[in-house]
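Hi team, as promised in this morning's meeting, here are the two structures we talked about. I've kept the exact order from the run log so nobody has to guess. The first one is mostly here for context; it's the second one we should focus on when we meet again. Sequence first, then the predicted structure tokens.
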Amino acid sequence: MTYMDLRRSRAKMARDWRAWVSRMAEAAKRVLPDAEVYVVGSAVRGDWVGSSDVDVLIVSGSLPEGMLKRAEIKVEVEDLTKLPAVHPFEIHWSRLEKPRRTSGGSGKTPSAST
């Protein structure tokens, strides 16, 4: 496969990002059952170009802290999605954490007053 073939393949995948992200979300939920998957950036805004990447945010409360473990999960998600080695998807991670009480606060959400 030539360099231009790879670029064309990558651009086609970027155009079909919705289908690929749907597969990626299924894969992420197999690895991290509480995962929520979002697309952010230029693909959502509609101002991406052929060389743009597609930014995918995976949020999970069970996401490990360590970067090596996160890299292993990323590879597993990519493998389950059947992504080729060269693809336009940039996976970002966020760990969903429970809200913490702050000192001096009640920890309750203030209610609206009328």
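And here is the second protein, the one for discussion:
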Amino acid sequence: MGCLPSIAYFPVSPQPDAVDLLPFAYFPPGVRYRMKRISAFCALLLVLVFPGCNALNPLCGSARPAPVIVSLSPSTITFAEVEQGVLLTVNGRQFVSSSVVVINGTTLSTKVVSSQQLQVTITTTLISAPGTANVTVNTPSGNSGDVGCSSGGTSGVLVLTIT
């Protein structure tokens, strides 16, 4: 669904049964706008009808971005390194404190270094033989998913090679 342009929903009315629609987006010079008064029911209806409007929906304040991974360091490791426990760094963007690295479907204890870097230790409990492993990052949704806000998600897959 599309987003409703140029409005946000704020309960600024002293009357409990009405809210004001306030302009929220940039308006070009010369364009005039007015504050419109609608019922609280209509405001709620608009929020429910246009659920994909994270930037315009104040209920989406705790929405988390979906993670993006761009590289692994190292991208190839030996099985001997796995036996000793090797540190894998996942580079990307939009990582948050709750982001976790997932290898072959197993969620690992993850150190969030920054919004662009995560680290995990790979051992033989995870990798039992040479081959390849699929690496993703998962960010759980925030507490706003139940009000129609997109939040969190799983990154694309990168392949770690174990020789």
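Starting points for discussion:
The radius of gyration is 22 Å.
The chain has two domains: 7-60, 68-162.
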